[in-house]
Amino acid sequence: MAVVVGDGFLARLSACRVKPEQLPAAFDGVRFAFYGRMSTSTFQDAQTSRAWQRAVAEELIDGIGSVVAEFFDVGVSRRWSWQDRSEAAALLAAAADPDRDFDAVVVGEYERAFHGDQFREVVSGLNALGVAVWLPEAGGPVELGSPVHEALMVLLGAQAQREVARARQRVLAAMRSQTRLQGRFLGGRPPYGYRLVDGGRHPNPVHGRWGRRVRVLAPDPVTAPWVRWMFAERARGRTVASLARELNERGVVCPSGADPERNTHRSGERWIVRTVAMILENPRYTGRQVWNRSSTTGHGSGGRAGGRGSGALRYNPISEWEVSERIAHEPLVDDETFVAVQGMRVAKRAKDGEVRRYLLAGLVVCGLCGRRMDGHWVHGRAGYRCRHGFTSVKRRSDGAPRNLYVREDHLLEALPHLLVRTAGPVQEGVGKELVDQVREQRLQIHYNDRRLEIRPAPLTMKTVEPARRSVQPTLELEWCADEKVAEI
Question: Which of 28, 338, 418, 444 could form a disulfide with 454 if both were Cys (CB 3.0 to 4.6 A apart)?
Answer without folding.
Answer: 418
